[in-house]
Design a protein that fits this description.
With 214 residues, the chain is an alpha+beta fold. The protein contains six helices and eight strands, in the order ααβββααββααβββ. A three-stranded antiparallel beta sheet has the order 1-2-3. Strands 6-7-8 form a three-stranded antiparallel beta sheet, with no helix packed on it. Strands 4-5 form a two-stranded antiparallel ribbon. The longest helix is centred in the middle third of the chain and has 16 residues.
Length: 214
């Protein structure tokens, strides 16, 4: 805009007043509220001075040193929900990606939305070098997947996730496999466990109940 007249005075105008008097600003604001889909993230939860949490130990054959996973919770409407996560270990080999993972997970927790989806995302990570068996025989496809299972156990502990129910059909299959000495030898495409056994002519996962026969 070119000024063609001599300036004889001036006035300081606040931004809010300028928007009220400027037709271009009003038009822009009207377009913003004209039905455009705007997705807003929930505001960050503020951290109290003190938080309650739990620490879990993860031991793997990948390292002689254990990992310690600490998840602190915050009260929202009287219910506990995760707020932040820390992972510590004497083994510095995976330090950089573990720090990155904890910061991303904590950022998701602090936005206060539904964070249960993180469990499935982490548990579906497979290590190209191969997984390992936990004490007790449960197979873990990767260290990231075990961190995901650790978060799942914590979410079940505070009531955000209900423990999986074992159907009578799956219980019967487990009992039958145990009675005839069948152990799972193949990896399940659904849960990733090495628990697929052949029962009654059909491949069945003894961990989650998945079956090729439906």
């Amino acid at each position: 805009m070119k000024i063609e007249k001599k300036i004889v005075g001036y006035e300081v105008v606040s931004p809010s007043h300028a928007e009220k008097t400027d037709p271009l600003a009003q038009e822009s604001r009207s377009k913003e509220g004209s039905g455009a889909d705007v997705i807003l993230m929930q505001p960050l939860l503020k951290r109290p001075t003190e938080l309650e949490g739990s620490t879990y130990r993860i031991r793997t054959p990948l390292s002689e040193h254990a990992l310690y996973v600490t998840i602190n919770d915050i009260l929202v409407n009287g219910k506990r929900r995760p707020f932040e996560i820390f992972i510590n270990s004497k083994n510095m080999e995976n330090f950089s990606w573990i720090v990155a993972l904890t910061r991303i997970l904590s950022a998701v927790f602090r936005h206060g939305g539904d964070a249960t989806f993180l469990v499935e995302e982490l548990r579906s990570v497979f290590d190209p070098r191969g997984g390992y068996f936990k004490p007790g025989g449960k197979y873990m496809p990767s260290l990231v997947a075990e961190i995901g299972e650790c978060i799942e156990n914590h979410l079940m502990k505070i009531g955000l996730i209900q423990p999986p129910e074992i159907t009578p059909e799956l219980a019967a299959k487990r009992e039958k496999a145990q009675s005839i000495g069948i152990l799972g030898a193949e990896q399940c495409p659904k849960c990733g466990q090495l628990a697929v056994a052949r029962l009654d002519g059909c491949d069945t996962c003894l961990e989650c109940g998945y079956s090729k026969c439906g």
